[in-house]
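quick one, 133 residues, struct below
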Amino acid sequence: MSYTPRETVEKTGFSLDTLRYYERIGLLDGVDRNPGGQRVFTDDDLAWLGILRCLRDTGMPIQRMLRYAELAREGDGTFAERAELLEEHDREIEAKIAALRDEQCRIREKIRWYRDTAPERPHSGVTSGDSSV
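---
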């Protein structure tokens, strides 16, 4: 199946500017064009964009995304290196999640403190500010 740029934007959540940028820097390779010069995306392009979305949303830097794309274009002989690159990224994601969990615990402790310390009274919807830290 083929998709117009607008359909691709709708399906992937990437902006048209991002699609153009990814094509210009080499993250998106071999996008066909119709006789009028408009990009025509395929299911394979959308699947690749899905991978790029995942990598971007999980914080992979563009340079490493480019390395991953380069390895993918080189073919099956790069499976091990691609797996290593993704394993490294996975470890970084785990570290970020752990750090966020630690911060979440601090926030939950503060919530408990407020719940345990706050005087029992109906909520007026107006706050005078919180001088505690």
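The beta strands are 2-3, 32-33, 39-42.
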